[in-house]
Amino acid sequence: MQADIQIQTPRRGARPGASRRPRPGDSDGVTHAHHPGALAIVAHDLKGPLANLSLLVDAIGIENAKAPRPRLTELTARADALVDRLQGVLMGLLDRTRLHGDPLAVVAQDVDLAQLIARAVAGNAPLAAERRVRVVADDTGPLWIRGDAETLLQALDNLVNNAVKHAAPGGIVACEATRIDDGGVAVLVRDDGPGLSDGDLARAFRPFTRLSAVSDATAPGSGLGLWIVRLIAENHGGRIDAANNADRRGATFTLRLPRGRS
Ligand SMILES: Nc1ncnc2c1ncn2[C@@H]1O[C@H](COP(=O)(O)OP(=O)(O)OP(=O)(O)O)[C@@H](O)[C@H]1O
Ligand SMILES: [Mg+2]
């Protein structure tokens, strides 16, 4: 539906690649100075290994086809889907930067958030299986808004990934989505992990910030995921909030997105 696509001008003011000294009152508390070609360098460095990984997955598929094993066929298909997704993310970042000057620019189209939640859950299935965490998503039926499918998937993937990383071993992650007053949608991602301290809550959405919870499941994170979720939410005119669960342990992250302009 190419004709339906709209570009929303990024809200953050900086020219692409522009650097400036941090100013007192910068809400992120870090310098925004960066190398103007940083994204191109990162993309270049990721593209090579990714292309090789793609060939490797193809080779496993070909080998498996000689004497097919159902489990291997399923795992290969999942690995293939993840490689496709990574290549899509990379190209999307570069295209958004080249065309709109912002890797997270909103290229708005009709988006079914329920479907994106299902994809975020499916994408994190390997980590959930490794940690024996059950991830459940309400069957809400379609929840349409105007938004950017690629960056919204990125935001949901970050939230589900964090929840799965920090849920109690053998625990549960619940994703809920509901319509809110203004016709937008609220997505709640709830886990049963250690939750967040008061200090954590104040700092959670700043870049390069790792908080009290440390996951046993993965290499140390970069502390960028929640900041990226915040930028994506804000670019959509929405917001992200974190809170501890009242009834039991763990945290809930709530992503609120407006219906968007059609
Ligand atoms: N669901 C959660 N429960 C408890 N703490 C969390 C949760 N999600 C995030 N955190 C804390 O917030 C910190 C920042 O999360 P964020 O997603 O920004 O970075 P990260 O997961 O460490 O790395 P990455 O950049 O790879 O996402 C984490 O290091 C963790 O301490
Ligand atoms: Mg993260």
Fraction of residues in H or I helices: 40-55%
CATH superfamily heading of the largest domain: Histidine kinase-like ATPase, C-terminal domain
CATH architecture of the largest domain: 2-Layer Sandwich
| Assembly type | single chain
Element-by-element helix/strand order: EHHEHHEEHEEHHEE
The number of helical segments is 7
CATH fold-level name of the largest domain:
Heat Shock Protein 90
Radius of gyration: 19 Å
- The strand order across the widest sheet is 3-5-6-8-7
The top level CATH class name of the largest domain: Alpha Beta
Straight-line distance between termini: 13 Å
**How many DSSP E strands?**
8
Write down the overall geometry. Answer: globular
**Helix- and strand-based class?**
alpha+beta
What does this structure look like?
The two termini are 13 Å apart. The chain has 262 residues and is of the alpha+beta class. The chain has helices spanning 38-66, 70-100, 113-123, 125-131, 149-166, 198-203, 225-235, and strands at residues 6-8, 106-112, 134-137, 144-147, 172-179, 185-191, 239-244, 251-257. Mean pLDDT is 85; it is low at 9-27 and 29-33. The strands form 2 sheets. The chain has a 5-stranded mixed sheet, with helices on one face. A 3-stranded antiparallel sheet has the order 1-2-4. The radius of gyration is 19 Å and the shape is globular. The longest helix is centred in the first third of the chain and has 31 residues, at 70-100. It folds into 2 domains: 38-100; 108-257, Histidine kinase-like ATPase, C-terminal domain (Heat Shock Protein 90). Helix 3 packs across helix 5 and helix 5 (149-166) runs antiparallel to helix 7. The chain contains 7 helices and 8 strands; from the N terminus they run E-H-H-E-H-H-E-E-H-E-E-H-H-E-E. A hairpin with a 6-residue loop joins strand 7 (239-244) and strand 8 (251-257). Helix content is 43%, strand content 18%. Bound molecules: adenosine-5'-triphosphate (ATP) and magnesium ion.
